[in-house]
Amino acid sequence: MTKNSNPPHDTASLNEDGRPQISQNPDIRYLGKMLGDVIRAYGGEKLYRQTEYIRSSSVDRRRKGSSVEDVDHGLGALSLDDTLDFTRGFMLFSILANLAEDRQGVAKEKGASVAEALEILRANGVSEDEVNKTLGNSLIAPVLTAHPTEVRRKSIIDHKSRIAELMAMRDAGLAETPSGDTIENAIFRQIALLWQTRPLRREKLRVTDEIDNARSSMEQVFLTALPKLYARWENDLGFRPTSFLRLGSWIGGDRDGNPFVGADSLQYAISRNGASALRYYMDFIHHLGSELSISSEQTDIPQEVLDLAENSGDNATSRADEPYRRALSGIYARISATYIDLVGESPPRPSTIKAPKYDAPEDLRADLVIIASGLRQGGEGALASGGALGRMIRAVETFGFHLATLDLRQNSDVHEELVAELLNIAGVEKDYKSLDEDARVKLLLNELSNNRPLSDGWHEYSEKTSHELAIIRAAAHAHAQFGPQCITTYVISQTQSVSDLLEVYLMLKEAGLYRVDSNGNASAGIMVVPLFETVGDLKNAPDTMTNFFAIEKMKHLAEVRGYQEVMIGYSDSNKDGGYLTSTWELYEASLALAPVFKDAGIAMQLFHGRGGAVGRGGGSAFGAIQAQPHGTVQGRIRITEQGEVIAAKYGSVDNAVASLETMTSATMLASLQEIKISPADLEKYSAAMTTLSASAFHAYRDLVYNHDGFKDFFRQMTPIAEISGLKIGSRPASRKTGGRIQDLRAIPWVFSWAQARVMLPGWYGVGQALDEFEDKALLKDMAQNWPFFETILSNMEMVLAKSDMRIASHYSQLVEDKALSSELFGRINDGWHKSRDGLLEATGQNWLLEKNQSLFNSIELRLPYIEPLNLLQVELMKRHRSGENDPKVRDGISLTINAIATALRNSG
Questions:
Q1: Which of 27-36, 531-540, 569-578, 770-779 is the most confident on average?
Q2: Which residues have CB under 8 Å from 720's CB, separation 6+?
Q3: Around 22, how many Cα atoms within 13 Å sit in the side-chain half-sphere?
Q4: pTM of the prediction?
Q5: pLDDT on residue 152
Q6: What confidence score (pLDDT) does residue 9 get?
Q7: How many CB atoms lie within 10 A of CB 806?
Q8: Where is this region: Disordered (predicted)?
Q9: Active site annotation includes 147
Q10: DSSP 3-state assignment of 554?
């Protein structure tokens, strides 16, 4: 461990290994004690004492810095039944610890609120007009995906949410709940229910389950959080910004590697999401109508409101002098009719008034504006204050009738096969797949110059082609019903060339979503977006987009739209080239794309495909956005939110508000703040990163792809086989059969290494690069003065702190070939120590997270609870792999995976 001359901590507060003792959150102490009482009451005294012995032994070992092997954890005394109960108890502690930390909100970083960002921008000479103009052209969107790293059942999450609500009441000084229970008894009851709730799913998640789970979050959190944020920003900004913050989703439209997503799931997602938005509007109008008892006998009513009331269809004599109520009855009736038309069923509280449906959200908004304008008149607008109606208008602007914009996504290989089949059957080209790129582009552009469909109703197409065409037609139907905002984007995985984009426009043409007019100008209801994922694809991205904009029809589409989106993938680029190379290539690709778009006169919108784990682009969203190359954000950014991160960042309205404001303020600063690094320094830093990246890439590829035994080592050391059998998502673990690392999805790749406490995708190769780099002073300079490099090291530091090579060594013993295990684990262990030591030297620290006490506390608190779970997991995997078929062994493995993931949090 490197040492500085002036350690910042009093030695009396240090553990025996020289690191500071943790300070525990009082909420964690309170909830932990409550959990202990529940275990004693429902699990019995024996289980309580066993659990407490294991916990205290593990805590003591970490405090003293003893070896894992030198401590009796008490695990050998557990029967299989005891093991399941003990694991459940530790998992619940992690859930409660997560809850306590989430209640503190997102860690504040300077500038992480819009008000603070405005102060920084004003201090830098940025005018309010510039801010207003930027926000007027902005789009900021978290995009929820169904990637399977959220291992908890929804029932578990619901109980956790109720405990959070009760803790908020306790904070407010309440002694009782509204129903009369004491707060303490109510919390105990919820924890007892958690203890008695089955933690594992019995059935594999279906796509419809994933849709419903996400919709529940959108309904309970986002519908309230986004309008609440806008109301705050109006005060901070001094003007009403456009509705630039939107919500996106992949769930029901992303079928890359998931054969269970089809036209039916697309229709289900659109319909259910729309139903949630419309129910929210109806509930709001119902409550507002009960409040607005304004009588025309007591005050003057604007004519527009009177007209709205007269045409409402509400002829009740009891409300004859209450035009606002009558107007709102008519609005409610029209929303009810819209619900019936779009959703295909009656709403929970249908209107008794016959009224026409709203054709578009803008029509509903117009009626609400009439009500709001009327309330502003008289009394200095006092009745319009309070913002409720303003928030409703904002909700309609933001969520429309669709709630969240649903993206389509599919792999370019699938598109190639589909287009080849269509062209062959239509008699246009028998062997499209044999054509080179130039010939493909010429052929596709010829087909895109007319509106003639290639498919017909009498030919029999392959199952895959029929499946994909049905999805495109379902998207066109959704547009006709819910409006074009319900689906705006089609993402192409593994984009490598311009023909990959043109193929999708050809597919869209089959459903009328791409058309050309009499002048040959093209229009498209859905934007086709390339996803550049591998290191090679990222390097080729500027050339691909240059060639794309060189096509007049394609450039015209972007000009009409006003921008073109490009998605960059963190997961597959990391799996392909390692953490450092992936991060640098993403940076370089973003930077290289900017002049391509500038020369074309098209605004660039980057879509960042980030996961929860650092190996998949995870870490601080604020830091990540701030670290983007200057000039690449431009007020427009979309970011995927995946797995367990959704519950962590958006599990409550307060957390969602904090997370969304952080994303917005970071985007404002990244778009408008002047770069603080001189061109000379930036050139020097970039050259250093190129050298570091090349070194890290060589080390990573040499281990993962150039060693014949690595595939078997990985599959035997980690619980990848056991994870593949978990019922935590609808998507298969691999794109193809055969077991190659190349075909394995990035999520199980990262998730498996996290379970084994190696976290290899988040650091491997960096240590070798830092060790070989000669100019250590330059590394320190970069760590202190370059936000990009600072973010790289900060994210890696978190991963290194969560990993444990002593625990990982127990997993390495699962590898059958002991010589292979010794060789490869030795390389991994050496790489970890080099990564840690190099990071500490560059950042000037004595230990990991020395400069981030809150994160140090959070991780250190959890590690004593994870360690016994890892040791149990290894033992259960040994038994299972040796042929033991007891279902409790399989359940125990699944439960430890669940518990470890919960404790590690951003592990996938």
A1: 770-779
A2: 714, 733, 744, 748, 749, 752
A3: 21
A4: 0.90
A5: 63
A6: 38
A7: 13
A8: 1-25
A9: yes
A10: helix
Count Cβ neighbours within 10 Å for each residue of 661-693 and write b for 16 or more, e otherwise: bbbbbbbbbbbbbeeebeeeeeebbbebbeebb
Among candidates 825, 821, 829, 811, which has minimal Cα distance to 896?
811
Question: Is residue 727's pLDDT more than 60?
Answer: no
Tokens encoding 7:
């350690």
For residue 376, the tally of other CB atoms under 10 A from its CB is: 15
Candidates 509, 575, 802, 880; catalytic one: 575
Q: What does the pLDDT read at residue 106?
A: 41
| HSE-CB for 258 with a 13 A CA cutoff | 27
pLDDT given for residue 723 in this prediction:
80
- Contact between residue 218 and residue 276 where contact means Cβ atoms under 8 Å apart: yes
Per-residue pLDDT reduced to its tens digit, 636-664: 999 998 866 787 788 888 889 999 999 99
Strands 514-516 and 522-524: antiparallel
From the CB of residue 146, how many other CB atoms can be counted at a distance below 10 Å?
Answer: 25
Q: Which two tokens stand for residue 392?
A: 């409703």
What is the spatial distance between Cα 749 and Cα 724, in angstroms, rounded to a whole number? 10
Beta strands in 517-597 (DSSP E): 522-524, 527-532, 563-569
The burial class, CB within 10 Å (0-12 / 13-18 / 19+), for 742 is middle
Give the pLDDT score at 830. Answer: 98
**What's the confidence (pLDDT) of residue 682?**
95
Count of helix runs (H) and strand runs (E) in the chain: 36, 11
Look up 575 and say whether it is catalytic.
yes
Partnered with residue 532 across adjacent β-strands are: 568
Is residue 364 scored above 50 in pLDDT?
A: yes
b/e map 824-840, b = 16+ CB within 10 Å: bbebbbebbebbbebbb
* DSSP SS3 for 254: strand
Fold type of domain 406-413+470-672:
TIM Barrel (3.20.20)
- What is the spatial distance between Cα 505 and Cα 465, in angstroms, rounded to a whole number? 15
At residue 627, the pLDDT reads 85
CB neighbour class for 879 (10 Å; exposed up to 12, middle 13-18, buried from 19): middle
* pLDDT value of residue 4: 39
Q: Domain residues of the chain, as ranges?
A: 138-146+206-251+263-399, 406-413+470-672, 680-851
* Long-range contacts from 337-345, C-beta under 8 angstroms, 24+ separation: 338/278, 338/364, 338/401, 339/275, 339/278, 339/279, 339/282, 341/481, 342/271, 342/274, 342/275, 342/278, 342/401, 342/481, 342/482, 343/271, 343/274, 343/275, 343/278, 344/271
Pairing state between β 489-493 and 514-516? unpaired
Strand arrangement of the beta sheet that strand 489-493 belongs to: 405-406, 248-249, 139-145, 636-642, 603-609, 563-569, 527-532, 489-493, 408-411
- The confidence score (pLDDT) of residue 7 equals 35
The predicted-structure confidence for 477-520, as pLDDT tens digits, reads as follows 999 999 999 999 999 999 999 999 999 999 999 999 999 999 99
- What is the predicted pLDDT for the residue at 63? 78
Q: Quick one: what percent of the chain has pLDDT higher than 70?
A: 91
